[in-house]
Write a structure and sequence with these properties.
Elements: E1 6-8, H1 17-32, E2 41-43, H2 45-53, H3 60-77, E3 90-96, E4 106-110, H4 114-122, H5 127-148, H6 153-167, H7 177-195, H8 203-217, H9 221-229, E5 238-244, E6 255-260, E7 272-277, H10 281-286, E8 292-293, H11 297-300, H12 302-319, E9 323-330, E10 333-341, H13 346-358, H14 364-369, H15 377-380, E11 383-384, H16 386-390, E12 396-397, E13 399-402, E14 405-411, H17 414-422, E15 427-431, H18 439-444, E16 447-450, H19 458-466, E17 469-472, E18 478-480, E19 485-488, E20 491-494, E21 498-502, E22 507-510, E23 515-516, H20 522-534, E24 538-542, H21 546-554, E25 560-564, H22 575-582, H23 587-612, E26 617-620, H24 634-644, H25 648-657, H26 670-675, H27 677-697, E27 706-709, H28 715-735, E28 743-748, H29 751-755, H30 757-761, E29 766-769, H31 771-779, H32 787-795, H33 812-826, E30 831-834, H34 842-850, E31 855-858, H35 863-877
Parallel strand pairs: 14-15, 15-16, 16-17, 24-25, 24-31, 25-26, 26-27, 27-28, 28-29, 29-30, 30-31
Antiparallel strand pairs: 1-2, 2-5, 3-4, 3-5, 6-7, 6-9, 7-8, 9-10, 11-23, 12-22, 13-17, 14-21, 18-19, 19-20, 21-22
This protein binds phosphoenolpyruvate and magnesium ion.
Length: 878
């Protein structure tokens, strides 16, 4: 039997989302439970996929099936397309598997033409009816032209405005039947002018074009962006729903509305919604008229309102979730046009989940599963005032590198950020890119905006760790850092000008948009406790200072999975010593400089062990290319020369000698320890001594230090550095008369390490997958520059998402799962985790669960997200 591409509403049900889309499946379900739904049909998502496979054409087979269902619909409704007695008018609406509100297209009142219009009017002498018919007709021409033929809306709006002016009226509703008739004529003329052909009068042609337009709208730019932001695969396609029209604009005994069974902003259990008399759905959404609150509908339409309240209770009870519904009242009778699980704020999501559990509607697992982990971000960071945001168009969009909202005066350097902050100003730091030297300035800013850099760039990683808002990679900025100005969206911004950025969306706004602080209520803790009960994966954090560690512990981190020790060297009191270490000529000189760093590093580790209160910490040894530490400013170079008793030229020569063509593949990671083992020895002393001291003060904590060697690609490399660590550690532990244990493991972040994981595992107590570098090296994309060309890859559907933000499960993921398996074969006790930025991304967390890792590690503010995503993965698995 050939594939079935079309289903009557009565042939489907709620479980058929993949095939019928959310809207289609729910229309079918509502039909099945006996709700008043105008009876039509759904064209499947597979038909959409086929449309694209056929080169954006609806093939004859599918078209024939659609026409068969048109005939069925006509019969069921006792109306016919183009019929002069009983004409059928329909709506044509998109409906994907996951709801994508407002992203795709809708056409209403399809089936009207001059003859049908004339016949309808002739059959009903009521002058209001004539007005209704012409109103519907002009709406249809306008929508069809805009959506199907892509003639801009503005032409039609101009004509309406001109008509209103001519008649001296303000509202559309004040236009008479004659005005609307004239407008319909003007619209058709406009259509002909724009398209060069007459407006199509055959309803079946209209239908064919409308269905095609909905399929096409799956690929429109805003839908593509929405999908990327919401993890919706392009391959899903959209279904199309064809439904007989019911008319909310028929007369004053008719109307249309949207409503939620609970408040989507707060979660409170009360019917919320809006209603408009004598209107079609688009009027409510478009805001051309001010709707009335749903409660007032009761006075006007007591019967329809009572019926609607019953439907709401029934739907909530049926779906066991808050419902978002569209409905129409035609001549006092209620019709349901749509229902779905309503979009809600994070706060509302938590409250609704808890309330539903308390009402005995759902169990804890369902409660955990119904919350979108990505939404939790909004609870943990400041957000823009939603009312102001609605009216503020974004001037640009770049990468949403670290969530939260920030508004402040523009500054161009880290020093300025600090200085202005001390003066009591709120600032946004705008830079070409950030470097480790900017950390203090980043801390002093409300948010950070960079021209360059991807989702794992310095700015992104550091801001995320701080819980600070960051938008990165805004290539549209034309930057002049030296003169403290930049151009964006046709405007020149100077130091002190206001800018607002949203790190959750990547949007950038001109001027001031006020922010509101984050609030975490009791429901948050309740849901998180349920999540912890059901997850198998451990959740650690990436942190390198006591403050971030404490923050992460508050958010439920079970330890540190990655302490990037280099971040501890950039503080103002440490950088001179590390620079001295780098510019040393001999081992002795280097050891002298390292000796200065050792007590500071040990102190940091002690403070972090204390903040962790006995939870484990993986300390990663020095990783970045050394040139990142050397001074660039003349004054700093002079100071270093003075400190080291060298000439300025000597220092400059050393700096020049550190230059590398590919620093990310250069002298970094364990290669530093292979060339300068004294660095690894110093870091070992600092970790082991810190742990010995803290264990002595808190014997019950029983800290077992975990030392992690980065960027290993060959087992002998790991063995060499491990031997240095073991020699130093064993000696210190013996001297202290302690029996403290410790672990030495490695990061798997070079493809060769993954490919030889069985060998490497023999020398490692643990693996931590460094998926930032592993992604960089597997794709061969620079993690800092890929943003420059990824846009073209998205447009061409080569990649659907940023592999630095969402783990590429096909390629990089294959290396991860393979290495995990091989590692366990030669070392069954090996502990496996991930510490790349993917550790806080919900779909990547699910992947880590599936391939059997022991834990994920992510920045502090993503810990709750990871806990929830880990629980969802476990629950989904069953
Ligand atoms: C990684 O490469 O995934 C990693 C965590 O290390 P870094 O980001 O510090 O290179
Ligand atoms: Mg790395």
């Amino acid at each position: 039997m050939s594939k079935k591409y079309v289903y009557l509403f009565s042939e489907g049900n709620a479980t058929m989302r993949e095939l019928l889309g959310g809207k289609g499946a729910n229309l079918a379900e509502m039909t099945n439970i006996g709700l008043p739904v105008p009876q039509g049909f759904t064209i499947t998502t597979e038909a959409c996929t086929q449309y694209y496979e056929d080169g954006r054409k609806i093939n004859d087979e599918i078209m024939a099936e659609i026409m068969e269902y048109v005939a069925k619909m006509e019969e069921m409704n006792g109306k016919k397309f183009g019929d002069l007695k009983n004409p059928l008018l329909v709506s044509v609406r998109s409906g994907a598997r996951a709801s994508m509100p407002g992203m795709m297209d809708t056409i209403l009142n399809l089936g009207l033409n001059d003859d049908v219009v004339a016949a309808m009017i002739a059959g009903n002498p009521d002058p209001n009816f004539e007005r209704f018919v012409y109103d519907s007709y002009r709406r249809f021409i306008q929508m069809f032209s805009d959506v199907v033929m892509e003639v801009g809306k503005k032409y039609f709006e101009q004509l309406i405005d001109a008509m209103k002016e001519k008649r001296g009226v303000k509202l559309d509703i004040e236009l008479t039947a004659a005005d609307l008739k004239e407008l319909a004529e003007q619209f058709k003329a406009e259509y002909k002018q724009q398209i060069g052909e007459d407006f199509p009068s055959d309803p079946k042609t209209q239908l064919y074009e409308a269905i095609r337009a909905v399929f096409r709208s799956w690929d429109n730019p805003r839908a593509n962006v929405y999908r990327r932001d919401n993890d919706i695969p392009y391959s899903w396609g959209t279904a199309v729903n064809v439904m007989p029209m019911v008319f909310g604009n028929l007369n004053d005994n008719s109307g249309t509305g949207v409503a939620f069974t609970r408040d989507p902003a707060t979660g409170e259990k009360k019917l919320m919604g809006e209603f408009l008399t004598n209107a079609q759905g688009e009027d409510v959404v478009a805001g051309v008229r001010t709707p009335m609150p749903i409660s007032q509908m009761e006075e006007k339409f007591p019967q329809a309102y009572a019926d609607f309240v019953k439907v709401c209770d029934l739907l909530e009870d049926h779906y066991r979730d808050m419902q978002d519904m569209e409905f129409t009242v035609e001549n006092g009778k209620l019709y349901m046009l749509q229902c779905r699980s309503g979009k809600r704020t994070a706060q509302a999501a938590l409250k609704i989940a808890c309330d539903l559990v308390d009402e005995g509607m759902i169990d804890e697992k369902k409660a955990v599963s119904m919350i979108d982990p990505r939404n939790l971000d909004t609870l943990l960071h400041p957000q823009f005032d939603a009312a102001v945001l609605k009216k503020a168009p974004a001037i640009a969009k770049a990468l949403p590198a670290s969530p939260g909202a920030a508004c402040g005066k523009i500054v161009f350097s880290a020093e300025d950020a600090k200085e202005w902050k001390e003066r009591g100003e709120k600032v946004v730091l705008v830079r070409l890119e950030t470097s480790p030297e900017d950390i203090e300035g980043m801390k002093a800013s409300q948010g950070i905006l960079t021209v360059r850099g991807g989702m794992t760039s310095h700015a992104a990683v550091v801001a995320r760790g701080m819980g600070k808002c960051c938008v990165s990679g805004c290539g549209e900025i034309n930057m002049d850092e030296e003169n403290k100005k930049f151009e964006l969206a046709g405007k020149t911004y100077h130091e002190g000008d206001f800018i607002s950025i949203d790190g959750s969306t990547g949007n950038i706004y001109d001027g001031i948009i006020p922010t509101v602080d984050a609030t975490i209520g009791g429901e948050f803790g309740r849901v998180m406790a349920w999540a912890d009960k059901y997850r198998r994966l451990g959740v650690r954090t990436n942190a390198d200072n006591p403050h971030d560690t404490e923050q992460a512990v508050k958010f439920g981190a079970e330890g540190i999975g990655l302490c990037r020790t280099e971040h501890m060297f950039f503080e103002a009191d440490r950088i001179p010593a590390i620079r001295e270490m780098i510019c040393s000529d001999t081992v002795e000189q280097r050891e002298k400089a390292l000796a200065k760093l050792e007590p500071m590093q040990q102190g940091d580790f002690e403070a972090m062990y204390i903040a962790l209160e006995g939870r484990p910490m993986t300390v990663r040894f020095l990783d970045p290319p050394l040139h990142e530490f050397v001074p660039t400013e003349e004054a700093d170079i002079e100071q270093l020369a003075k400190d080291m008793g060298k000439s300025v030229q000597d220092i400059k020569n050393i700096i020049a000698s550190l230059h590398e063509f590919n620093p990310m593949m250069g002298h970094r990671g364990c290669r530093l320890a292979v060339t300068f083992p004294e660095i690894a020895a110093m870091q070992t002393r600092a970790v082991i001594k810190a742990a010995l001291n803290v264990n002595a003060a808190h014997p019950d904590w029983n800290i077992i230090p975990e030392i992690m060697i980065p960027l290993v690609g060959e087992v002998k490399e790991l063995k060499y550095v491990k031997d240095v660590v073991v020699e130093v550690a064993d000696k210190l532990i013996a001297e202290a008369g302690s029996s403290m244990k410790y672990k030495v493991g490695t990061m798997i972040e070079i493809p060769r390490a993954a490919l030889t994981a069985d060998e490497i595992a023999k020398e490692a107590d643990f693996f931590s997958f460094g998926t930032n570098d592993l992604t960089q090296m597997t794709f061969g994309f620079s993690r800092d520059d890929a943003g420059k060309f990824l846009g073209a890859y998205y447009d061409k559907k080569i990649y659907e998402s940023d592999p630095f933000a969402r783990l590429d499960q096909t390629g990089v993921g294959k290396l991860v799962s393979m290495a995990a398996k091989m590692g366990r074969e030669t070392n069954p006790h090996i502990h496996l985790g991930i510490c790349g930025e993917h550790g806080g991304d919900p779909t990547s967390v699910e992947f880590c669960h599936k391939v059997g890792l022991d834990y994920v590690s992510c920045s502090p503010f993503r810990v709750p997200i990871a806990r929830l995503a880990a629980a969802q993965a476990a629950i989904k698995e069953g």
